[in-house]
Amino acid sequence: MIDATLRYELRFCSLFDSGRGYSFPCDPHGHVDLDALSEQARNNYLYARAMVGRELSVPALRPSGLH
Fewer CB within 10 Å of terminal CB in the chain, N or C? Predict the structure, then answer.
């Protein structure tokens, strides 16, 4: 059973600069609702996806610390 109160994020970490990267709210399956993101966040998400393996790691699905 999935806890509806638990929030998740998809985190892309920098391959070169520890502690840097991008994170985006998502569902428990790692799907990001692009329509719910601001234009800037949507652009950052698309950039992060394009940079996997070049500048960023494969994204990790994690429980979000923001409630």
Answer: N
